[in-house]
From TrEMBL:
The keyword Transcription regulation applies. PANTHER family: DNA-BINDING TRANSCRIPTIONAL ACTIVATOR DEVR_DOSR, HTH LUXR-TYPE DOMAIN-CONTAINING PROTEIN. The lineage of its organism: Bacteria, Bacillati, Actinomycetota, Actinomycetes, Streptosporangiales. It comes from the Bacteria. It holds the Pfam family GerE. Residues 382-447 form the HTH luxR-type domain. One of its GO terms (biological process) is regulation of DNA-templated transcription. One of its GO terms (molecular function) is DNA binding. This is Helix-turn-helix transcriptional regulator. SUPFAM superfamilies: ATPase domain of HSP90 chaperone/DNA topoisomerase II/histidine kinase, C-terminal effector domain of the bipartite response regulators. Gene3D superfamilies: Histidine kinase-like ATPase, C-terminal domain (3.30.565.10), Winged helix-like DNA-binding domain superfamily/Winged helix DNA-binding domain (1.10.10.10).
Length: 448
C-alpha cells in the first residue's frame, strides 16, 4: 500500500525526535518565501513560546524582513532594528536576553547566520524570559542556517535582470538610510551639545540651536540631488575641508578639543569615495563622543597611491566593547570595498582606521617604486614590518630610534607631549614590544 501526502499537510509536535526537526525544515523550505516566517513560527510555538518572530534576509532588497505575530510588535521590526540586534550576535551562538523593541523591553531570542556575505538572522520576541534549552537552541540555529542557505540560493539563481535590480535597490536604500541617519545624528548631537552647555545663557543657546538646525536642513537639501546626479570629482583637501566644517560645528560648544590633520597631498576623489569617507569619519567621531572622559579627538586623512586612509583618534579610556555604531561603520566602509580597524590602548585612547580604495591605473602603479625592508622570520620576503603604523607613528618611531624623549619629539613635530605618549602607546601595541628601546631596535632592524 502506498500513501501520498504533501508537506503542506504535515502536523508537527516540537522537536522530540531529530527526524521531526528535519521534516520541519523541509516543510518550511517547501513554502513560498512569503510564508516561511509563518511556518517557522508555528513549528517553534511549542518549544519556544513567543509573541512574534521575524526573519532578516539581507539578500532580499525589496523585502528583507518577514515578521509574523503580534502586530504591535511586528510593525516596528524594520530591517534597521533587526540588523542592529542581529549584528551583535555571534553566528552559531544564539543569544537570549532583553532588548528594547516596540517601545519597551522584551525578552528575545536572537540567532545570526554567516552563510550569506551580508549576514542574516532570526529574532523572536518571547512570551516570558525563560531560558531555552541548549538542544532547542541548536535546532533553531540549524533551521536559521538552512533557511539562510536556501534564500541565498534562490537569490543567486535568480534571473540576471531580477538580481541586478534587487542589488541596485538594496545599495541605494543602504546608502540613503546611512547618510540620512548620520546627518540627523550629527545635527541632533550638535543641538544637544549647545543645549547642555553651561557656558551659554538661555537666549544664546536657543539662538545657536536654531542656527544649527537651519544649517542641518540646508545641508540635507543640498545633498538630496546628489543621488540622482552623475558621479563627479572633488579634491581631497576640499572634501576634508567640508568634513572639518561639519565637525567644528558639531563640537563648537563641546568641551572636547578637535585637532585636524588634512591630507598632505591633493588629488581628485570620486564623489562616491569622498562622501563615503566624510560620512564614515563623522560617524566615528560621534562614536568616540559616546565614551566618557574624552577631551581630545584628532581626525586625519592620508592619501596614498591606491587608498585613502582616514583616522580618528581620541584620548578616552581606550576600552573596546561590542559597540553597535562601530559595527555599522565597518559595514558601511566594507560596502565601499574598504577596511575598518579599531585599536584601543587602555588608559591612552582608541584609534579608528578607515581605508578606502582609490582608482589607480596599472601603468601608474608600475611606475611606483616602494622600499624593500628586511624580512622577519614570520613574514614573507619583502614584507614591510612597519606597514601597520601610520605616517605620524612612523615619525614618532624614528625619533624614538634616535633616543629622543617625549618633550623633544613634541617640539620637533609641533604636537603636545600627551599626543606623543598616545602615539608611543599605539606603536608599542602595534609592534608587540614592551619598551621604547625594543621599538627603536625594531626600527633599526627594519631599516634598509
Amino acid at each position: 500500500m502506498t500513501h501520498s501526502r504533501t508537506l503542506d499537510t504535515v502536523e508537527y509536535a516540537g522537536f522530540a525526535q531529530p527526524s521531526s526537526a528535519l521534516v520541519t525544515a523541509a516543510h518550511i523550505m517547501h513554502a513560498p518565501a512569503s510564508e516561511m516566517a509563518t511556518r517557522l513560527s508555528a513549528a517553534l510555538a511549542d518549544d519556544v513560546p513567543h509573541r512574534a518572530v521575524a526573519l532578516l534576509a539581507t539578500q532580499c532588497a525589496s523585502s528583507p524582513v518577514a515578521a509574523v505575530g503580534d502586530q504591535e510588535i511586528t510593525d516596528t521590526l524594520t530591517g534597521a532594528v533587526l540588523g542592529a540586534l542581529v549584528a551583535q550576535v555571534t553566528p552559531g551562538h544564539p543569544w537570549q536576553g532583553t532588548a528594547h523593541l516596540a517601545g519597551g523591553p522584551w525578552p528575545v531570542l536572537a540567532v545570526a547566520s554567516d552563510l550569506t556575505p551580508r549576514g542574516a538572522g532570526l529574532v523572536m520576541v518571547l512570551d516570558e524570559d525563560t531560558p531555552v534549552t541548549a538542544n532547542v537552541l541548536l535546532i533553531v540555529q540549524a533551521l536559521v542556517d538552512l533557511l539562510t542557505s536556501h534564500v541565498e540560493r534562490l537569490v543567486t539563481d535568480a534571473t540576471p535582470n531580477t538580481l541586478a535590480q534587487s542589488r541596485a535597490v538594496a545599495q541605494a536604500r543602504t546608502h540613503a538610510v546611512a547618510e540620512l541617519g548620520e546627518a540627523h545624528a550629527a545635527a541632533l548631537s550638535g543641538i544637544l551639545g549647545v543645549l547642555r552647555s553651561h557656558r551659554l545663557d538661555d537666549t544664546v543657546a536657543r539662538s545657536t540651536a536654531v542656527d544649527l538646525a537651519v544649517n542641518a536642513l540646508l545641508e540635507l537639501r543640498n545633498e538630496s540631488p546628489r543621488g540622482t546626479s552623475p558621479v563627479w570629482e572633488e579634491s581631497a583637501r576640499q572634501a576634508f575641508g567640508h568634513l572639518s566644517d561639519s565637525l567644528k560645528m558639531l563640537l563648537s560648544h563641546s568641551a572636547v578639543q578637535l585637532e585636524l590633520d588634512p591630507p598632505a597631498n591633493d588629488r581628485s576623489l570620486t564623489s562616491v569615495t569622498a562622501h563615503a569617507a566624510k560620512v564614515s569619519v563623522r560617524a566615528a567621531v560621534l562614536a568616540a563622543l559616546q565614551q566618557s572622559e574624552v577631551r581630545r579627538i584628532r581626525v586625519g586623512w592620508q592619501l596614498g597611491l591606491t587608498e585613502l586612509v582616514a583616522t580618528v583618534r581620541d584620548d578616552g579610556p581606550g576600552l573596546l566593547n561590542d559597540d553597535l555604531r562601530a559595527c555599522q561603520i565597518a559595514q558601511r566602509v566594507e560596502a565601499q570595498g574598504g577596511s575598518f580597524e579599531l585599536d584601543a590602548v587602555p588608559g591612552w585612547g582608541m584609534t579608528t582606521k578607515l581605508t578606502f580604495p582609490l582608482a589607480l591605473s596599472e601603468a601608474a602603479a608600475t611606475r611606483i617604486s616602494r622600499p624593500v625592508f628586511a624580512s622577519f622570520p614570520d613574514e614573507a620576503p619583502g614584507a614591510d614590518p612597519l606597514a601597520g603604523l601610520g605616517a605620524r607613528e612612523l615619525e614618532v618611531l624614528e625619533h624614538l630610534a634616535l633616543g629622543h624623549r617625549n618633550r623633544t619629539i613634541a617640539q620637533e613635530l609641533h604636537i603636545s607631549e600627551s599626543t606623543v605618549k598616545f602615539h608611543v602607546a599605539n606603536i608599542l601595541s602595534k609592534l608587540s614590544v614592551g619598551s621604547r628601546g625594543e621599538a627603536a631596535a625594531f626600527f633599526h632592524s627594519a631599516a634598509v
